[in-house]
Amino acid sequence: MNSILRKSILGIAGLTVAGGLAAGPLNHDTTPTTRDAAVTTQAAGTLDTATLIPHGVQGNQSHIDLTDEQTANVKAIIAATKKAGMDERAAVVSIATALQESKLENLGHLGDRNDHDSQGLFQQRPSSGWGTVEQITDPEYSTMAFLKGLKQVDGWKDMPLTVAAQTVQVSAYPDHYAQWEQQAADLVAEHWNK
């Protein structure tokens, strides 16, 4: 992607410079475990793997057990994705991003553990133009803001998940999104048609 297009995308979407820094595994008590990437989304629902994971998963996959609150956030991300007129793949990218950034927890300010002023499911920053604290801690708003950024990424559907997510988030840890693709796909397969 040329630098002018990238700067335009970043300016339009008001993207964070280090969105992944605060929400990485070091800042949470939940330790992801490696999961067998051979698990397919077909077992979880009617959507097939080719739709949800068109490029296959990259690297070892992580998995966490979700609380009711985290599951509600998955459903909110899926609802917002549908409201934005985007498809199941967009939901997979969004959920994998939120898994990496916050473990699907709608995080407020974390004090010394905070990455600047990053908050919410996607660890968006008010100071970077994502919205107010109230907005970015609203799951629908924060998902719509993420999806607005994703729509600005030319060819995002043809990119590996981690590249698409990183282009929007501009994380200090760009490869970490890939580890959540299988769980995100499983969650979309389970909840998309409910």
What would your notes on this structure say?
The protein is globular and about 40 Å long. The protein is built from eight helices and two strands; from the N terminus they run H-E-H-E-H-H-H-H-H-H. A two-stranded antiparallel ribbon has the order 1-2. It has helices at residues 3-13, 49-52, 68-83, 88-102, 133-136, 139-151, 161-169, 181-191, and strands at residues 33-35, 61-63. It is 43% helix and 3% strand.
Short description:
By secondary structure, the chain is mainly α.
Keywords for this entry:
single chain; 194 residues; mainly alpha; two-stranded antiparallel sheet; 8 helices; 43% helix; 3% strand; globular; disordered N terminus
Alpha-carbon distance between the two ends? 37 Å
Report the major sheet: 2 strands, antiparallel
**Contiguous uncertain segments of 5+ residues:** 1-45
Q: Write down the overall mean pLDDT.
A: 77
Query: What is the helix tally?
Result: 8
In one word, what is the shape? globular
Measured as a percent range, the helix fraction is: 40-55%
Query: What integer value in Å does the Rg equal?
Result: 15 Å
Helix-and-strand structural type: mainly alpha
Strand content is under 5%
Tally of strands: 2
Give the neighbour order of strands across the main sheet.
1-2
SSE arrangement, N to C:
HEHEHHHHHH
